[in-house]
């Protein structure tokens, strides 16, 4: 079944820090939609409102104006059909890898044997077969993020909401997990909304790239990207990165994100 997550003229404000001080407008006039099978990547400078946007989709926050909708219904809070993965894995240190992954199933009331079986399958799917008994502190950063993603997949969500999920990893692990994410996204059939700082990552993973401009956060540009499709069809990511189109889109995005003076001249 196709699902759609929609931002309809969404604004978000945080209250002022001191009593009497005016509130800060963080997002303004956001129109965006993510459907099953989309991989939407939101990129923008620090403070441009990326996490706030994801928090709205997760239902952690409510818009000041406009609406965030799931299949036409306003989102009123978190839900199992929208799984969230943060930069810090947020795993439960008192549980081993398997029980972390099985946790959402326990919440759903799935019986113990069935949970264990599902968790083993998910461990295999994220390349961690045989690691179920390991404690969280025995896992590398990359393995922890795999466990976090496996846990997110356990509830068979319709949307994966990922806030800089690979941001804390070393470059080599990050490249590997980018391909892993593409694979997971494709096989799950879910829609993905991923936040990143990395232009390279945005170009490799996205079917659509959304550039957020700061203060207040608003959409500066939306670009379609086809590199994820090429990679999933077997293209070598290193070759893809070296292509003329990739480089020119990289330059274009760099200008859009960092070059405000240029933007004002163009306006
Ligand atoms: N809970 C909060 N209260 C007040 N201001 C906040 C809060 N969270 C974020 N902000 C402000 O909102 C803006 C956008 O933050 P955020 O969504 O975290 O941006 P990003 O993820 O792009 O770095 C920043 O100016 C930040 O300081
Ligand atoms: Mg953020």
UniProtKB/TrEMBL annotation:
CDD domains the UniProt entry points to: ABC_NrtD_SsuB_transporters (cd03293)
Occurrences of domain ABC transporter (ranges): 5-244
Gene3D superfamilies membership: P-loop containing nucleotide triphosphate hydrolases (3.40.50.300)
Keyword Transferase: no
Source domain of life: Bacteria
Name this protein carries in UniProt: Taurine transporter ATP-binding subunit
PROSITE patterns linked: ABC_TRANSPORTER_1 (PS00211), ABC_TRANSPORTER_2 (PS50893)
GO molecular function annotations of the record: ATP binding
Family assignment from sequence similarity: Belongs to the ABC transporter superfamily.
Protein keywords: ATP-binding, Cell inner membrane, Cell membrane, Membrane, Nucleotide-binding, Translocase, Transport
